[in-house]
Amino acid sequence: MVITDGQDIQGWASLNPYSHRCAYDGVADISVYIDRNWRGKGLGSKLLQALEETAKENGFHKLVLFTFPFNQLGQGLYRKAGFREVGVYEKHSKLDGKWVDCIIVEKLIDENLD
Ligand SMILES: CC(C)(COP(=O)(O)OP(=O)(O)OC[C@H]1O[C@@H](n2cnc3c(N)ncnc32)[C@H](O)[C@@H]1OP(=O)(O)O)[C@@H](O)C(=O)NCCC(=O)NCCS
């Protein structure tokens, strides 16, 4: 999914496969990115909301997102969107040759789950 001003792409978001195991078919791992020139103007929130609607329409019951502990903007976005912090994977990703922790967050988007 992309967001544009009619000419340029301002940002994009995607529903990515969470696992190859069919038990997790209803879970989507998400990505959201807003062009640096367009950040802090509400576009990330708008895009995430649209992505959530698309996920519901396509039968997903949960969204998960992985983020770095130092990503303040990302944390602001998912908190505002009602995501819950699940925990922290230690030394989970390699960034510039160094192991970094990774925060896992989730949001149940189907209110009718048993
Ligand atoms: C994270 C990202 C998608 C947010 O998009 P955005 O359009 O800037 O976000 P919004 O304007 O909708 O703001 C959503 C919330 O983010 C936080 N935020 C946004 N800009 C901020 C800033 N300059 N300083 C502090 N917090 C900020 C706030 O909590 C904000 O809510 P508020 O406006 O009610 O205070 C964007 O910064 C980005 O593309 N970052 C790089 C990629 C990335 O980190 N993706 C997410 C991985 S978790």
Please outline what is shown here.
The chain is α+β, with helices and mostly antiparallel strands.
Helix content: 10-25%
Main β sheet profile: 6 strands, mixed
Hetero groups in this structure are: coenzyme A
> How large, in whole angstroms, is the Cα Rg?
15 Å
**Structural class by SSE content:** alpha+beta
Keywords:
114 residues, alpha+beta, globular, Aminopeptidase, binds coenzyme A, six-stranded mixed sheet, 43% strand, single chain
What layout of secondary structure does this protein have?
Elements: E1 2-4, E2 9-17, E3 27-34, H1 43-57, E4 62-67, H2 72-80, E5 84-95, E6 98-108
The structure holds coenzyme A.
Description:
It is a single chain. With 114 residues, this protein is of the alpha+beta class. It has a single domain, classed as Gcn5-related N-acetyltransferase (GNAT) (Aminopeptidase). Helix content is 21%, strand content 43%. It has 2 helices and 6 strands, in the order E-E-E-H-E-H-E-E. The chain has helices spanning 43-57, 72-80, and strands at residues 2-4, 9-17, 27-34, 62-67, 84-95, 98-108. Strands 1-2-3-4-6-5 form a 6-stranded mixed sheet, covered by helices on one side. The mean pLDDT is 96. It binds coenzyme A (COA). Residues 32-34, 39-45, 65, 67, 71-74, 76-77, 80 line the site of coenzyme A.
